[in-house]
Amino acid sequence: MSSPWSHKAQMSNSSSITHFLLLPFSGTRQLQLLHFWLFLAIYLAALLGNGLIITTIAWDHHLHTPMYFFLLNLAFLDLGAISTTVPKSMANSLWDTRDISYAGCAAQLFMFFFFISAEYFLLTTMSYDRYVAICRPLHYETLLGSRVCVCLAAAAWACGSLNAVLHTANTFSLPLCQGNAVDQFFCEVPQILMLSCSTSYLRELWLLVASACLFFVCFVLIVVSYVQIFRAVLRIPSQQGRHKAFATCLPHLAVVSLFLGPGTFAYLKPSSISSPCLDLVVSVLYSVVPPAVNSLIYSLRNQELKAALSQMITGWFQKQ
After folding, report:
1. Cβ neighbours for 235, distance < 8 A, ≥ 6 positions apart
2. Tens digit of pLDDT for each residue in 87-110?
3. Three-class SS of residue 33?
4. From 25's CA, which of 114, 125, 149, 311 has a CA 20 to 30 Å away?
5. How far apart are the C-alpha atoms of 233 and 253, rounded to whole Å?
6. In terms of C-beta density within 10 A (0-12 exposed, 13-18 middle, 19 or more buried), how is residue 114 classed?
7. Taking the model in full, what pTM does it have?
């Protein structure tokens, strides 16, 4: 049983932390600069890709449909997610430092949790959009009118915000007595919990379990939607019709797989295969890669989006 004195010491230790030390990608200067330029290229590609999607959808009134409205929201969330982690990591590599302030760490944890949670809820909504479009096409405009779409998107953002507030407030209310070195290149809940004292992290652990259950419900909804979609598509008599139906679903399915795959592996992999190098690579795969390539996945096979983008760029050059 801990004494009042030990509890006071723990709280004092926690309150004395003014900054955290993030995990560096390398200790050598050349590799730090390589990491900076690599992350800069990825970040600029993400800004360009998601920025073009946002601009194109906003510019072309033919794309003012539920599917593209949700895609517009996804692009905003991707920009937010990658802007939360990558610029700070780039700055640390460029200036050869590991520091992030206490407030900066809390803000980064909140923003990352917010954008990732909201994106997952939005991807669940997008699977429902594909289900209605393919399985109940005659009721599409009724079930997914403009007001319904706005409410669904707002609910995704609101749920992400609430989830982030609960986890951030709970995590940073814990006494920290295991130092200030974060075993990750950005601030994340599990790594902060590793710095907490004894059993004080159990409260946040239960909150994480509750969030995991909610995410699992969303996963089940996505799976059920696609089971119904595949059943409906296989009943389409023409091969061209089946191909067109699959083409509208495959980008979303690829984005969901890329979003869930690395993250699930990162948190459920056995400790026996864990290593600092593998953990770092996997963390990049679930935090940096999806926001950077989602726009590419959606635009590669989408003729409607590519045509609108081409018209917009052509119009810009003609005005010059």
Report:
1. none
2. 999 999 999 898 999 999 999 999
3. helix
4. 114
5. 15
6. buried
7. 0.89
